[in-house]
């Protein structure tokens, strides 16, 4: 169904609500714009109800799908960005333990994993009181995005954290266990030659 067909099935207030909701996906705010005299509690409850309405749901899904298409965003693209962070290492930013690579020589993938760079320049006297020798020392601190958060997001997107049905040790009935419990049961299982 096209956006115009779905939109035609909405009331005027629902149209305002949908247009506002699709700006920032905030139902409470959108409801208050569509129904300005509503109280906070009323807006909160009714926004939730309105979002469960079939025509409103369909319209919002349609808008969301088209935003993804127009912007070129997909689950695969999001997953690839998480993969860059999840499988990154500060070691990729160095030639040797203390010698870092020039920023310009880093790949775009390596650069995209950097959360912040903090540079401090200090002047130090490495000479003696009689013969002072001032040198400039540069301290660079590079912080990468949270690797564990990215790996958790990858796991969630791929369904690794979901419960799975397994038959442990050929017992009945089938048990529902978490993925980590299943992995532990595999580790604890006897090896049969």
Biggest β-sheet description: 2 strands, antiparallel
Strand order of the largest sheet: 1-2
Number of helices: 9
* Whole-number total of structural domains: 3
Could you say which overall geometry the principal axes of the C-alpha atoms support?
elongated
Task: Give the assembly state of these chains.
Answer: single chain
Strand content: 15-25%
Number of strands: 4
Task: Name the poorly predicted regions.
Answer: none
CATH class of the largest domain: Mainly Alpha
Give keywords.
193 residues; alpha+beta; Arc Repressor Mutant, subunit A; two-stranded antiparallel ribbon; two-stranded antiparallel sheet; 9 helices; 15% strand; elongated
Describe, in short, the structure shown.
By secondary structure, the chain is α+β, with helices and mostly antiparallel strands.
Could you characterize the architecture of this molecule?
The protein has helices spanning 3-8, 12-24, 27-34, 40-52, 54-71, 75-86, 108-111, 147-157, 179-188; strands spanning 114-125, 134-144, 164-166, 175-177. The chain has 193 residues and is α+β, with helices and mostly antiparallel strands. It has 3 domains: 3-71, Arc Repressor Mutant, subunit A (Orthogonal Bundle); 84-149, no CATH class; 162-193, no CATH class. The strands form 2 sheets. The chain has a two-stranded antiparallel sheet with strand order 1-2. Helix 2 (12-24) packs antiparallel against helix 3 (27-34), helix 2 (12-24) packs parallel to helix 5 (54-71) and helix 6 runs antiparallel to helix 8. The model has no long low-confidence stretch (mean pLDDT 84).
